[in-house]
């Protein structure tokens, strides 16, 4: 039995956050007390950026997000800030806790159409949060455009107005914040683009909701996480002094012909760097001499002329995991290799050409992967995902990356790594993690081949598939961060020892 994932890394959907609020209220905290603390956290964020006497514009919406804004306005005025407060909607609309918060504000309430953001030093965006249910329109949309054009510091309450907390997506205009103050736990929309970029710095505030209230005994465990080491660090491979190379795991990488000797080698090199004991390239006969003439010398190579020879090669190498895809090719032999790989009883990573070979045949993948008793990991980027699963519901590119990755993982009984600046890792059991390491420096040829090799190397060492994929994505990102711009994919495997030191126990 593995330890459950730490709830501190949980990302809560909007509905789960509403449940957390209810759980807190059921345990005896008044809803208004939560709002009071939320408003105070926002006021504190403003106080850290500004000085008393400065003009602060507080934009309030008609729901509880607006309620937080009214509380912040009251506290900031008491601290000596000069407040302009505008309300999107009618004061009479504000009910419950938000009504109580509005009643505590003694100052004038202006209409949004009258507001000139540029007359202020700081803007608080408390227009819409978890309750956003349609695109911003009318006077509010126009105000949002004026706020964004003002270039003034904006602090958003919970999420930038116009951003979905569940998906990070926008369906119309949205606030571009410098800081977003949110409560208890982050939401997926804080980590998924474009939400992540629109949030600015995210500040997580304690408003009195405790983990015990929300995740205590009898409550469903969280299923969505921020990809941090605490999620998988305990499952990283550990090797005792007496180990030997086969115990550290033997990786094979299925390669193509002469046209693509680089990509599989990047994968194999990464597998060795992450700790696999051996790595062998299985290539077409015409590429064997070229592979043999290239470094590193630790790599081995054998030739296979057809699918049967490939299967035979898999059987002779005491293998622990297989990577198929980088520069595999798209011909009939590549298709045979992919089928053989899916039928072999070996933990498997399918990337690049292997995913394209299966393009628009996701039902074949579902059938073959569904029969496997050992882990399968798919590592598509957006283009490969689209080719494989198409653009229809529930995979349509208009749907959240989190939903699409999860749906694909369940359908294919595989761990799906949907790559991008906000890579999503999803397991067939419903768990998912969103990654935040890395930078645009990783958007370079061969970077994904290295990632495939890292996952394979961790699988070869016996790490469970979801944790292996999460660890690989995080470490790949850290290797990219350490190298920065100027990196090429060849550098990434060499930066893995440094990234590993960050998490070595
Ligand atoms: N107990 C709680 O639930 C807590 C909630 N808090 C705050 O409460 C917020 C959620 O409050 P609500 O559920 O009231 O939701 P919101 O305040 O986000 O929005 C509510 C209202 O806006 C309307 N609306 C949605 N999209 C619109 C659009 N595009 N144009 C015009 N109107 C639109 C909705 O119909 C609804 O009436 C959180 O984001 C957070 O800021 C905090 O006070 C902390 C405690
Ligand atoms: N802007 C970005 N920020 C962070 N990581 C990125 C960014 N763009 C790409 N990456 C990462 O770089 C890798 C690129 O992989 P892939 O698209 O398969 O490239 P290739 O096929 O050239 O190897 C993925 O791990 C992806 O998550
Ligand atoms: K907001």
Automatic annotation (TrEMBL):
UniProt family annotation: Belongs to the NnrD/CARKD family.
Cofactor section: Mg(2+); K(+)
Binding site for (6S)-NADPHX: 64-68, 129-135, 158, 263, 381, 449
Protein's name according to its UniProt entry: Bifunctional NAD(P)H-hydrate repair enzyme
Stretches assigned to coiled coil: none
Alphabetized UniProt keyword annotations: ATP-binding, Isomerase, Lyase, Metal-binding, Multifunctional enzyme, NAD, NADP, Nucleotide-binding, Potassium
Known role: Bifunctional enzyme that catalyzes the epimerization of the S- and R-forms of NAD(P)HX and the dehydration of the S-form of NAD(P)HX at the expense of ADP, which is converted to AMP. This allows the repair of both epimers of NAD(P)HX, a damaged form of NAD(P)H that is a result of enzymatic or heat-dependent hydration. Catalyzes the dehydration of the S-form of NAD(P)HX at the expense of ADP, which is converted to AMP. Together with NAD(P)HX epimerase, which catalyzes the epimerization of the S- and R-forms, the enzyme allows the repair of both epimers of NAD(P)HX, a damaged form of NAD(P)H that is a result of enzymatic or heat-dependent hydration.
Taxonomic classification: Bacteria, Pseudomonadati, Pseudomonadota, Alphaproteobacteria, Hyphomicrobiales
Record-listed AMP binding positions: 419-423, 448
Organism of origin: Bosea rubneri
InterPro entries in the record: CARKD, Nnr, Ribokinase-like, YjeF_N_dom, YjeF_N_dom_sf
């Amino acid at each position: 039995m593995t330890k459950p994932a730490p709830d501190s890394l949980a990302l809560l959907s909007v509905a789960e956050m509403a449940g957390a609020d209810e759980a807190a209220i059921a345990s005896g905290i008044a809803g208004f007390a939560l709002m009071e603390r939320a408003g105070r956290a926002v006021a504190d964020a403003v106080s850290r950026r500004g000085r008393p006497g400065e003009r602060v514009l507080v934009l309030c919406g008609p729901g509880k997000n607006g309620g937080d804004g009214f509380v912040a306005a009251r506290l900031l005025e008491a601290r000596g800030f000069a407040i302009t407060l505008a309300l999107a909607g009618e004061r009479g609309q504000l009910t419950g806790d938000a009504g109580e918060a509005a009643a505590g504000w003694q100052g004038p309430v202006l209409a949004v159409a009258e507001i000139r953001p540029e007359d202020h030093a700081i803007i608080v965006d408390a227009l819409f949060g978890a309750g956003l249910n349609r695109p911003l329109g009318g006077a509010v949309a126009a105000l949002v455009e004026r706020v964004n054009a003002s270039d003034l510091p904006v602090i958003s309450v919970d999420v930038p107005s116009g951003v979905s907390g569940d998906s990070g997506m926008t369906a119309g205009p949205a606030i571009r914040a410098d800081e977003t103050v949110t409560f208890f736990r982050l939401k997926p929309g804080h980590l998924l683009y474009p939400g992540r970029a629109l949030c600015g710095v995210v500040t997580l505030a304690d408003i009195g909701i405790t983990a015990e209230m929300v995740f205590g005994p009898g409550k469903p465990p969280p299923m969505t996480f921020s990809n941090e080491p605490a999620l998988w660090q305990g499952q990283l491979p550990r090797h005792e002094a007496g180990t030997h190379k086969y115990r550290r795991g033997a990786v094979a990488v299925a390669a193509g012909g002469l046209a693509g000797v680089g990509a599989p080698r990047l994968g194999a090199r990464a597998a060795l760097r992450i700790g696999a004991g051996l790595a062998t390239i299985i290539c077409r006969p015409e590429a064997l001499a070229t592979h043999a003439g290239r470094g590193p010398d630790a790599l081995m190579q054998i030739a296979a002329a057809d699918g049967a020879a490939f299967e035979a090669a898999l059987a002779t190498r005491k293998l622990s995991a297989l990577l198929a895809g980088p520069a595999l090719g798209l011909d009939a032999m590549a298709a045979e290799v992919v089928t053989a790989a899916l039928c072999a009883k070996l933990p498997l990573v399918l990337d690049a050409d292997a995913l394209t070979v299966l393009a628009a045949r996701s039902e074949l993948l579902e059938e073959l992967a569904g029969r496997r008793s050992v882990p399968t990991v798919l590592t598509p980027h957006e283009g490969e995902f689209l080719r494989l699963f198409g653009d229809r519901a529930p995979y349509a590119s208009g749907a959240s990356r989190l939903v699409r990755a999860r749906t694909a993982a369940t359908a294919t009984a595989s761990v799906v790594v949907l790559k991008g600046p906000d890579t999503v890792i999803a397991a067939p059991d419903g768990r998912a993690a969103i990654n935040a390491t890395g930078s645009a420096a990783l958007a370079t040829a061969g970077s994904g081949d290295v990632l495939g090799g890292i996952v394979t190397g961790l699988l070869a060492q016996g790490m469970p598939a979801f944790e292996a994929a999460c660890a690989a994505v995080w470490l790949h990102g850290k290797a990219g961060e350490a190298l920065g711009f100027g990196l090429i994919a060849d550098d990434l495997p060499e930066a893995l020892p440094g990234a590993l030191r960050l998490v070595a126990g």
